Amino acid sequence: MMAEEKAKVDFNTVLLFLKRKFSITDVKWSENKYLEVKYRTQIFIKDENYNKYCDEYVEQFSNVTNTIWVHKSSNTGRHVKFRKQYQCWPYQTKEVDKKLLFDPRRCRATLDVKVLGNVTAEKNNSNRYLRLGLNVLVKLNFQHLHEVDTSKNFTFYTHSCNPLDEVPKPPAISPEKMLRLVSKVVEKASLKAEYIDKDEKQSSAMQRVADENQKTQDYINSCQYSRQKIEVNYGFPVTQGNHITKANDNLMYIHQMVFDSTTQTLTELTPVMSSEVDQSLSQSQL
Fold this sequence. Notes:
- This protein has 286 residues and is of the alpha+beta class.
- The protein starts with a helix and ends with a helix.
């Protein structure tokens, strides 16, 4: 039996003792020390106290597996109503010492519990699980620092080993893995540079349009419109339809009209009698 299949069978036995519906969706075993298990299960929710329900589930999980899990962090998200992470206490004592909780010389196990909410239409798979009542996604991670005998039962989930004398050094990265990492970095940098260049071109085009609009507005504001006055003198009798009439046979009114070329309007000035105009003309000739 393959290691991942063996790990799945063992964990399936553990989940049966919880007496809740579940579905193991993924099991990964890598480098003979890393184990990741993802599964769906159910939590009976009566109110929005998700923190309490997560703790109740982990407490039941602890009783079945004879382990102690310590709260590490919690938050919420768009499609996650509540998320709570736990760290396994690797010592036999029930009293937890936070200084030793993250001891890098010991094997480590984490439990990530997510209470799911409504998801988008694209998440058809998630909707299927929700319809089945599997409203919780749990991810279990193990990092072993000792040799794991995959032929033994539940060996993937046991980490009650003695601590190492020294903190293990990170393994050297193989040339093939380094090449893949460099390729990913170069690809991301190229995509980012392309995006930045496109964004700069778009910004430059928008700035040019804004500059042209500003220049046009400045030109309009700088223009000075002169008002031209046009005098229209009526030195002859006009009909009553133009609202100007004779005073008598020898006396006429002279109307002056001022035309404003800007507003395209005529303004009527105070009428002057023809005798006054003749007198002003004779005085100007003298």
